[in-house]
């Protein structure tokens, strides 16, 4: 039997848990929250990995070994399809991309990816290109320049 197959009204909807209605109800007095502490208070949400004040397992693990995140180059990506916003013969660089709102300011290097089509002949000067993006820009008659 499945819950959605129950036809009679009896047992079709589970009644909500009514707390604080006397000791005989099984959910009286502390209403299932126990005595004192943050778990008893309204609005309390234990954070992920919180262990009741005990030092969490993540913090107890030793921090050692190599982590590539410290050395990774993180790019702001722009797809070839977004370059259609520019006019024929334009020079597209970090400043013009930021002016059009395609990237944030020049705090991170920019990489052009090959998603979409390009029909305009433009010169693109950014830090990196995917091979498909470079091919699409050149096939449209444009140039690529690496900074």
Would you kindly provide a brief summary of this structure?
This protein is α/β, with parallel strands linked by helices and 147 residues long.
**Secondary structure category:** alpha/beta
Uncertain segments are none
Sheet-strand content, in percent, reads 5-15%
Global Rg: 30 Å
Structural summary, described in words:
By secondary structure, the protein is α/β, with parallel strands linked by helices. It contains three helices and six strands; from the N terminus they run αββαβββαβ. The strands form two sheets. The protein has a three-stranded parallel sheet. The protein has a three-stranded parallel sheet with strand order 2-4-6. The mean pLDDT is 89.
Features:
single chain; 147 residues; alpha/beta; Ribosomal Protein L15, Chain: K, domain 2; three-stranded parallel β-sheet; 3 helices; 6 strands; elongated
Q: Topology of this protein?
A:
Blueprint: H1 57-60, E1 76-79, E2 91-92, H2 94-99, E3 110-113, E4 123-126, E5 128-129, H3 131-139, E6 143-146
Parallel strand pairs: 1-3, 2-4, 3-5, 4-6
């Amino acid at each position: 039997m499945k819950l959605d197959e129950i036809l009679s009204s009896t047992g079709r909807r589970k009644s909500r848990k009514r707390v604080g209605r006397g000791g005989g109800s099984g959910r009286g007095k502390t209403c299932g929250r126990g005595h004192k502490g943050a778990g008893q208070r309204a609005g309390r949400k234990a954070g992920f990995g919180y262990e009741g004040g005990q030092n969490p397992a993540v913090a107890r693990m030793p921090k050692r070994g190599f982590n590539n995140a410290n050395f990774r180059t993180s790019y702001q990506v722009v797809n070839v399809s977004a370059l259609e916003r520019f006019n024929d013969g334009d020079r597209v660089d970090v400043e013009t991309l930021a002016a059009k709102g395609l990237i944030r300011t020049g705090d991170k290097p920019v990489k052009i990816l090959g998603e979409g089509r390009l029909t305009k002949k433009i010169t693109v000067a950014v830090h990196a290109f995917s091979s498909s993006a470079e091919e699409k820009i050149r096939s449209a008659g444009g140039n690529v320049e690496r900074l």
